[in-house]
Amino acid sequence: MKNIAVFVSGGGSNFKAIHQQISLGEIPGQIVLVISNNPKCSAIEYAIENSISHVIINETRYPNPHTRNELLTATCVKAEIDLICLAGYMKMLPPAIVKEYENKILNIHPGLLPEFGGKGFFGMRVHEAVIESGKRESGATVHFVDEIYDHGPIIAQKKVEILESDTAESVAAKVLKLEHELFPEVVKAFCEDRIMIENNKPKLVEYNEN
After folding, report:
1. What are the residue numbers of the active site?
2. What's the whole-model pTM score?
3. Which residues 6+ apart lie within 8 Å of 2 measured at CB?
């Protein structure tokens, strides 16, 4: 049973999707900690409603960046976290926690990396860029986190067709549905030790009961 921490800044729909799959017994893990920089986000309300421990770490409460970054890592270590899931977390992770949890931090991106990723490419900006590019498909990507935005090794992707009638808003809705399927699947694979890494390339291995 893996201990999971979720980092979130907003509504936390992916956090909720993962938690619901855990509640159904589909994922052999438990969300024991939610960390946010936004005390007023609805994800924190959800954590409270479901009796999940939560911590607010932001610039207002901890103005010193060194103290803030140390606290982020120390909080996860103290909670004996095995996996960190970034579910709409709008802050760059400090190098110390990336190093401490190498290949143990998952991020969900609302686009098909490596295109439409990097600093500034988040939320609706990704979908607007996809529409403007004229691409005929988009999707969601789950990858391990490194010290560069949207750069870590890709674990899995799901794709969706883009129609001529689609707008950034309609693509966003399609991709979000994919995210809610893909992220729990990858979390499940991690918790079942089914993500193999060869030459820095992750690979999902099918579960074998034998």
Report:
1. 109
2. 0.94
3. 28, 29, 30, 82, 83, 190, 191
73 token code pair: 């890592």
Nearest to 79 by CA among 69, 71, 90: 71
Output the CA angle 68-74-76, nearest 5 degrees. 110
The full length of the chain comes to: 210
Distance CA 158, CA 136 (A): 14
| Cβ–Cβ < 8 Å for 154, 143 | yes
- From the list 16, 31, 27, the residue with the least C-alpha distance to 187 is 27
What single letter denotes the amino acid at residue 172? Answer: A
CA 183 to chain CA mean position, Å: 7
Q: 5: burial class by Cβ within 10 Å (0-12, 13-18, 19+)?
A: buried
Please report, in angstroms and rounded to a whole number, the separation of the first and last CA atoms in the chain: 20
Task: List the chain pLDDT tens, one digit each, 210 residues.
Answer: 999 999 999 999 999 999 999 999 999 999 999 999 999 999 999 999 999 999 999 999 999 999 999 999 999 999 999 999 999 998 999 999 999 999 999 999 999 999 888 877 888 899 999 999 999 999 999 999 998 887 899 999 999 999 999 999 999 999 999 999 999 999 999 999 999 998 889 999 886 554
**Cβ-based neighbours of 197, under 8 Å, separated by 6 or more:** 103, 153, 203
